[in-house]
Amino acid sequence: MYRVNHLVPEQMFSTETEKAQGISAVKALAIASQQGQKIWTITQSNLDLALSRINLGADAENDIRNAVYAGKIATAHEARINFNGWVGEGYTLIDPNTGAGGYMISGGGNGAIFVMLGLAGLLMVGIGLLAFGFVGIALAAPLIFAAIAISLANLFRGLSLLSDSLGFSELTEAKLCNLATYSYTAGLFALLGRIPILGRLLNNMWAAFVAGAGATVFLTPVCT
Hints:
224 residues; alpha+beta; 2 domains; 5-stranded antiparallel β-sheet; 9 helices; elongated
């Protein structure tokens, strides 16, 4: 099933006039092969050579390395592909003794969706502020803050998922990821604070949250 899992969204979302395009590990390998890329069969005997020749996302390469160390055989293409705006890779990790394994894809597709959601959210907030002016801001300040925080969280999370594609360092990826986490939390606090029974408790938590967030966001990754 996982070998052809791109067929499920294609069948669900295609129409008579427009065919949807999905992606799977096998399809990504096929596309890479059609583009002239070498397809590597990676075992413990050629792992170092293969990893020195391929140029995939850091997570994918680490996944391949760990799986091969564990005795699996990996199949991967040389470089990331761009398929209808999705930038990523497909690879397989197979146990040679049982034939079981994983058909993996990774890349920036989800990141692009988060970025678009974040930008769309900020645009909607901006339109709302222009439409309702200062009166609207005064009446709905917590909700506006929550909308801005959640939109920024989506934007930061999307950029963190796209870090490999954009050439960001792991440190930058961690900072973006932390910013997303704290922005989501801030937005949630603002929404829950509208509930009377929770308002006082959350107000007391804000001081500790704000004090720790500024420093921690640049120190410890809380999501990957």
